Amino acid sequence: MADNGEILLRVDDVSLQFGGLKALSNVSFAVRKGGLFSLIGPNGAGKTSMLNCISGRYRPTSGNLTWNGEDILRHSVNDRAHLGIGRTFQNLALFGHMSVLDNILVGRHHKLRNNFLTGMLYWVGGARREELEQRRFVEDIIDFLEIQHVRHEPAGTLSYGLRKRVELARAMAIEPRLILLDEPMAGMNLEEKEDMARFIIALREEFEMTILMIEHDMGVVMDLSDQVAVLDFGKVIASGAPEAVLANEHVKKAYLGEADELLDELADTAERAIA
């Protein structure tokens, strides 16, 4: 659960524009330390653009992003990883030809202390010891995500569900305080979703990570989230506790372009939660 209401990340009036296209318009919300905040909305609502602004891939046209009260807009993607912001991607961004183990080790790059000169003395200096330390850390993540049996397989040969786990493992490898999950369960079957939900719960409870998640499965959003914000055409149309947000009439209308059954699911889920 969230830790005493302390704000870890604050988004204030963030707007993002590409030429004449406004992807985000004065978006504001706050993610509490130790919480799970879900960002939902129809396709094209600006959810991934928001994560790209937080992680540093995009620079907002206007607005502010504060991390523990510090402005992070001047920080690069790598700087934000050092601060403790990690992420996964909606479209998998693994190195397909590399092994699972090596893909995850990429996430440890910013933790390396040795430089070129100490690397030249690999066998007599500290570089070899450091590599062993990093590999032990990564092996613990592999065990946690139950992917021991594929650790030496090329990532590109794995099933979609396993590749999703590998990408989560790489994000975990930076030891983030905040992890951004972009549709972690998209394309998964029921069993794979249940496994991923179990891992996400453990990220909070065992690893003490704060989570900001984009997810379309309303059952998952209701079950896992503390707070929810809904984006539609780049604007926040509702935010708050999951059951209240999903019962909001404006939220239901925002999903009209998706599917009638999604509207029914939103209504039924919210009514059950309130009851």
Automatic annotation (TrEMBL):
Annotated ABC transporter domain residues: 9-258
Gene3D superfamilies assigned to the protein according to its UniProt record, in alphabetical order: P-loop containing nucleotide triphosphate hydrolases (3.40.50.300)
Pfam families assigned to the protein according to its UniProt record, in alphabetical order: ABC_tran (PF00005), BCA_ABC_TP_C (PF12399)
SMART domains assigned: AAA
Any one annotated GO CC term: plasma membrane
Molecular function (Gene Ontology), one example: ATP hydrolysis activity
Keywords recorded for this protein, A-Z: ATP-binding, Nucleotide-binding, Transport
Keyword Transport listed: yes
Domain of life the protein comes from: Bacteria
PROSITE patterns for the chain: ABC_TRANSPORTER_2
InterPro entries: AAA+_ATPase, ABC_AA/LPS_Transport, ABC_transporter-like_ATP-bd, BCA_ABC_TP_C, P-loop_NTPase
Name this polypeptide is given: ABC transporter ATP-binding protein
